[in-house]
Write a structure and sequence with these properties.
Helix content of chain B: 55-70%
CATH topology of the largest domain in chain B: Multidrug efflux transporter AcrB transmembrane fold
Structural class of chain A: alpha+beta
Structural class of chain B: alpha+beta
CATH class of the largest domain in chain B: Mainly Alpha
Strand order of the largest sheet of chain B: 2-3-1-4
Shape of chain B: elongated
Number of domains of chain B: 2
Distance between the termini of chain B: 27 Å
Number of strands of chain A: 15
Order of helices and strands of chain B: HHEHEEHEHHHHHH
Oligomer: heterodimer
Helix content of chain A: 55-70%
Number of strands of chain B: 4
Radius of gyration of chain B: 24 Å
């Protein structure tokens, strides 16, 4: 027996679609309480349902830029950004946001989407804790002392100077190269510190310990291999000087280096912490220390009502559009239009299934994209049907006219869809979130439509021919 | 059902009339551009803050403008769309909270019985705007290039590729003209819509080109002009039907889709009509002109008026 491959593939695709869409259907008819419970229990069904974008759900979208200018030479930008993403993910997880999206965009941008968080300030606070840890040697030269004098004289804080050094040209003039001025935690002591020799990127671990002469709280840190080497070198070269441990621009402690600290040994931060502070510091450093500071460069918040309203209108208008197209095809092409409609419906189902399966997010432009894609994929059917009409007009029998129609337009359909696909791919390439959603639906829709319009409709015709149901064609 | 039986319209013979219409539309675009004083870029490209607010009851945009002015915010732009009012200002992130509360308080003061609601706030940094602008330019450039190459490859002549690109540019520029005319800001949505128009426009062009190619093989005895005109007539029904379905959806999105869909659908409606127009009245006649210029016999014949396209 000859295997009907077309039929086999169609049935397989349909089965796949039902399988992929089943959880979403189940979810759609679930009661609100059950949904809440499932969310609480982190039910695996959550991973398989249709994902809605922020514009449909409400939430906050953030774009961060990692400032990589502080990185030491051998730390790669890529690693720093990836580490920052990991850290931000940890923090957001602790905050309990359902299904956040945290991803790299471009070289050093991080995109964060927080569904349900409509107060951007809360989100900013959560991520904004940079926990940038630096080790700097205190500079006690004449120039450095002069800098401190000037700062005290002017009554400004070190932070004010750091923010905008060019407004204080006299201080800038005496500032040693690469150095800057910092305040210390809980006191009015200011330090002039040379450039950072090590950052949190070199950390392997951090934990709370009791120690020192008086058994106070401290945070002990462990460096990774490279970090340990650098630390050993620093301590060896700077015996007698103070090593300041700077967290987010504030000196936590500045112990005097008494001996070389060899690799593998631990360093500790003594900052007069209470136990809570020490714990937080260790946690932030561990989960924690961003290898480089991040800066917010884009923020978009969609309120829930705008979301609700857009969902309703977006879906209704898309639905009206699709129904009108279905009706039009039926009225214009009669029974053949109905066959084309069947192909369209299948196109819609497969498109949705692929979107869910590949975990693409549905955005409003995506919904519009689906409606437009369907309208465009009608094109393939129209091409075929018009061609069949033409062939019938030349006096061919129904069977040969149908065959000729399909054969002659295949490459036209392919070319037309392929060029549109080119536009869609570039749309995806540059697109921000929303545009991407549209490009994805358009691309998948075009590919699926080539299959449904050409293969599936042909299959239906063949079936009808076999049963002798279609001696006369009405198109 | 059929809109029309096989047609026999002389498109090619009247090509200069249609070129004139195209020219007029392009002039309109330039006029709109000058009249509006250039493109009105949104914060996606310029960077800044965009705040969307809505009121329980309808308000006059004038009153809102006055209220914002009185709050001490001096450089801002207002735009209303449906029951949403958008306030745009070139501010940095630090002043966002201040901006938000200033706007909110000024609205509460001016419309005490008409509660204001903040529907959303967007901040885009200058680096993002710059990045997006670059991306958009390169996306269009590479998309065009890829399309030209593909079409040229499929039709074995770079002419067809270039002509189809001219058709797209024609459609995009005029669509942009309508965007400027409607005083809509250029944002990512507009750019996405324009690229979609491009994809749609070339789709249409390809179908016609395919038919011309097929007919050139079948109708070897006929003149180039006749073949092209016949091809246009043959695909006319298909072109109208397909465009109609896209048009229906675009209209549905435009009228029922609400604020978010509005601009996108507006451009798609114009783009759908333009896509058909450029295929029949720009791309086909351009191919035709090229054919005439290349063939000396045809050129002479056209000069003497011996050649009919019908």
């Amino acid at each position: 027996m000859k295997i009907n491959w077309k039929l086999l593939i169609t049935v397989a695709l349909l089965a796949f679609s039902v399988w992929a869409l089943w959880p979403s259907l189940k979810w759609a008819v679930m009661s609100d309480e059950k949904k809440e419970q499932a969310e609480k229990e982190r039910d695996p069904i959550l991973g398989r349902i249709l994902k809605l974008g922020l514009d449909l759900k409400g939430g906050t979208h953030l774009l961060l830029e990692t400032d990589t200018s502080h990185l030491e030479g051998d730390v790669k930008v890529k690693d720093a950004v990836n580490r920052a993403i990991e850290i931000i993910r940890n923090r957001i997880d602790q905050f309990g946001v359902a299904e956040p999206v945290i991803a790299k965009q471009g070289d050093k941008w991080i995109v964060i989407q927080l569904p349900g968080i409509e107060d951007p300030k809360a989100a900013r606070d959560l991520i904004g804790k940079t926990a940038l840890l630096e080790f700097r040697i205190a500079n006690t030269d004449k120039e450095a002392r002069r800098v401190l004098d000037l700062i005290y004289e002017k009554g400004i804080t070190p932070a004010q100077y750091r923010e905008n050094p060019s407004t204080y040209p006299d201080i800038k003039a005496v500032m040693p190269e690469g150095a800057s001025v910092f305040e210390s935690k809980g006191s009015m002591d200011y330090y002039v510190l040379d450039k950072a020799l090590l950052t949190g990127a070199a950390l392997a671990n951090a934990k709370v310990e009791f120690g020192g002469e008086y058994g106070q709280m401290m945070v002990s840190i462990e460096f990774n291999r490279d970090g340990g080497k650098i630390f050993e070198y620093i301590t060896e070269r700077n015996i007698g000087k103070s090593l300041a441990i700077v967290l987010d621009g504030i000196v936590q402690s500045a112990p005097v280096i008494r001996t070389r600290i060899s690799r593998g040994e631990r360093a500790s931060i003594e900052g007069g912490f209470n136990s809570e502070e020490a714990k937080v510091l260790a946690a932030v450093l561990r989960a924690g220390a961003l290898p480089s500071p991040v800066r917010l460069i884009e923020e978009r918040t969609v309120g829930p009502s705008l979301g609700d309203d857009s969902i309703k209108k977006g879906f209704i208008s898309s639905l009206i559009g699709i129904v009108l197209v279905f009706l039009f095809m039926f009225i214009y092409y009669r029974s053949s239009g109905l066959i084309a409609d069947a192909a369209l419906a299948l196109n819609l189902i497969i498109l949705m299934a692929v979107m869910v399966y590949l975990k693409f997010t549905f955005t409003l432009p995506g919904v519009a994209g689906i409606a437009l894609t369907l309208a465009m994929s009608v094109d393939a059917n129209v091409l075929i049907l018009e061609r069949i009409r033409e062939e019938l007009a030349t006096g061919k029998t129904v069977r040969t006219a149908v065959d000729a129609g399909y054969q002659k337009v295949f490459w036209t359909i392919f070319d037309a869809n392929f060029t549109t696909l080119i536009a869609a791919v570039f749309l995806f390439q540059f697109g921000t979130g929303y545009v991407k959603g549209f490009a994805v639906t358009l691309s998948i829709g075009l590919i699926v439509s080539m299959f449904t319009a050409v293969t599936v409709t042909k299959l239906i015709y063949e079936f009808l021919f076999k049963r002798n149901l279609l001696l006369k064609i009405k198109i | 059902m059929r809109f029309f039986k096989s047609t026999d319209i002389d498109f090619i013979g009247n090509r200069y009339k249609f070129f004139a219409i195209s020219g007029l539309l392009l002039l309109l675009t330039v006029g709109a551009f000058i009249y509006r004083g250039g493109l009105n870029y949104g914060i996606d490209f310029t960077g800044g803050i965009l705040m969307r607010i809505s009121f329980q009851n309808e308000v006059e945009l004038q009153d809102v403008r006055r209220a914002v002015e009185e709050s001490g915010i001096n450089s801002f732009e207002l735009q209303s769309s449906g029951n949403l009012i958008m306030i745009r200002a070139k501010k940095d992130l630090e002043s966002q909270e201040e901006f938000e509360s200033l706007v909110k308080n000024s609205m509460l003061l001016r419309f005490p019985d008409n509660p204001v609601k903040i529907e959303g706030i967007e901040y885009v940094g200058p680096t993002v705007g710059e990045y997006l602008s670059k991306q958009v330019v390169s996306a269009f450039l590479f998309a065009f290039l890829a399309m030209i190459i593909y079409v040229a490859f499929r039709f074995k002549s770079s002419l067809w590729g270039i002509v189809s690109a001219v058709g797209i540019i024609h459609d995009i520029v005029i669509s942009l003209g309508f965007v400027i005319l409607a005083n809509k800001e250029i944002n990512i949505t507009v750019v996405a819509a324009l690229l979609t128009v491009a994809g749609y426009s070339i789709n249409d062009t390809i179908v016609l080109f395919d038919r011309i190619k097929e007919n050139l093989k079948l109708l070897v005895k006929e003149d180039f002009l006749v073949v092209i005109n016949k091809s246009i007539n043959e695909v006319l029904v298909r072109t109208v039907v397909t465009s109609l379905t896209v048009f229906i959806v675009a209209c549905s999105l435009f009228f029922f889709g609400g604020e978010v869909m509005h601009t996108f659908a507006y451009i798609m409606i114009i783009g759908t009509v333009l896509g058909v127009f450029s295929t029949i009245f720009v791309c086909a006649p351009l191919v035709c002109e090229w054919g005439i210029r290349r063939n000396k016999r045809l050129k002479a014949a056209v000069k003497q008026g011996d050649v009919r396209s019908k």
